[in-house]
């Protein structure tokens, strides 16, 4: 089979769809995700994965990729989940959204009009914006601390305990759990729960 040096029509289609896909991903990552999360370490991954998935699906579309291939992409990332480092649920959800949009924009055939494609992308972007802004869904994370003011762990001193920990950590605490009490050392292990935007990631801190 002869391979064409250039097919202007297909090239223009590739460029147009790639730019459109990149624009949609930019809106989701920059205007929705980044505005509601301080984690910037996933920016590169989102853009890189979107680019690879889009080009892979678009260029291989000529060999009649079936729906199973697209679903297989989700299965692969669902199994692997970047085993070197566990991805938080929210970041994993955005990853699936990025993959899904890239697959849609690459594999939507001629039977799908540009208006339908535009509406689909707009619907996804709008839904993500509503979930983040209107419903104000927040991701709760935990932080384990060692607390030395043992008198404050009494149930009658709960307000004082919360106030003291918030002042010393600068974190707005949503709730807390007393995990362990050591009366010999006059310390207690406490797990506090807060919004992920207050402090990124789980850690341990001694107070």
TrEMBL record:
The keyword Nucleotide-binding does not apply. The chain crosses the membrane at residues 15-33, 42-61, 91-108, 114-131. The keyword NAD does not apply. Pfam families: DUF4956. Keywords: Membrane, Transmembrane, Transmembrane helix. This is DUF4956 domain-containing protein. It comes from Mariniphaga anaerophila. The lineage of its organism: Bacteria, Pseudomonadati, Bacteroidota, Bacteroidia, Marinilabiliales.
């Amino acid at each position: 089979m002869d391979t064409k040096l250039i097919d202007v029509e297909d090239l223009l289609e590739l460029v147009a769809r790639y730019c459109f896909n990149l624009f949609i991903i930019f809106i989701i990552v920059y205007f929705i995700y980044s505005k509601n999360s301080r984690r910037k370490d996933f920016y590169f991954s989102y853009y890189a994965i979107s680019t690879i998935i889009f080009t892979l699906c678009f260029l291989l579309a000529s060999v009649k990729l079936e729906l199973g291939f697209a679903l297989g992409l989700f299965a692969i990332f669902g199994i692997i989940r970047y085993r070197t480092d566990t991805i938080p649920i929210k970041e994993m959800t955005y990853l699936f959204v990025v993959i899904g949009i890239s697959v849609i924009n690459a594999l939507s055939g001629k039977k799908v009009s540009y208006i339908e494609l535009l509406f689909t992308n707009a619907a996804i972007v709008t839904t993500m914006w509503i979930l983040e802004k209107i419903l104000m869904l927040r991701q709760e994370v935990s932080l384990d601390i060692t607390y030395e003011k043992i008198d404050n762990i009494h149930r009658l001193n709960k307000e004082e305990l919360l106030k003291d920990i918030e002042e010393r950590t600068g974190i707005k605490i949503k709730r807390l759990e007393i995990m362990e009490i050591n009366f010999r050392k006059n310390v207690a292990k406490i797990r506090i729960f807060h919004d992920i935007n207050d402090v990124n990631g789980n850690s341990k801190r001694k107070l």
